[in-house]
């Protein structure tokens, strides 16, 4: 596993050097390009590396390197789009109706229909990146796999805004994490014109793992921003006391570990080594945070 960890860490650093420049020309608005190329380069590059790790799990590394690099770049762009969109809807002061309209606008641009209105550079960046993803990649999805993933993701994000039941919010976290990782994993299937159900399942479970960690480690910010997650709703209802925080931490970390184990056990030996390295990279990210 150590060998894989070193390899993929180096790839993440190399990806970060090139990823920002690959976004140039996404929009005719120079302010949008500056926003995109300066937005959290390393996290997006790390998610591109995750896309390549899913590819390596699926293909055992038997793939042309240009195709593999394309998988990494596309995965980075998809996760960057979800990250920017999440940032806008969590931190913006818009009404619920306006947030839903923005989500629908991003989704429509991602699939080439382009229904949207622009209010600021951040929103324009999300729409522009969605259109570029459609032009460069999504338009090749003739079977509508991505439509299913993103329709599910948008639907569950909308539900999250008003959900108050802790059990429902746990299920929402599962679905959000699974959809985000699946969006990166399915790039390999479209690039290779093959299906990899074991890899896709492992990816979805790793997405769940990430989302539950994110729910716990982003608790302070989520409380400040009024975001609905399992931890924030429980703490608002029961009080921000050590016993309550310990409870939500235990639940989040238990759900995360359960998801990891579920994805891990279906893999072959090579896949398990890569999967464990992926988990360690994610754990390191959150420990640094």
Specify the CATH homologous superfamily.
Farnesyl Diphosphate Synthase
Summarize the amount of helix as a percent range: over 70%
> Any low-confidence stretches, pLDDT <50, length ≥5?
none
CATH class value: Mainly Alpha
Mean pLDDT: 90
Structural class computed from helices and strand pairing: mainly alpha
Order of helices and strands: HHHHHHHHHHHHH
CATH architecture: Orthogonal Bundle
Q: What is the terminal-to-terminal distance?
A: 23 Å
Count of DSSP H/I helices: 13
Assembly state of the chains shown: single chain
What best-fitting shape do the alpha-carbon axes yield? globular
Total number of distinct structural domains:
1
How would you describe what is shown here?
This protein has 289 residues and is mainly alpha-helical. Helices cover 80% and strands 0% of the residues. The mean pLDDT is 90.
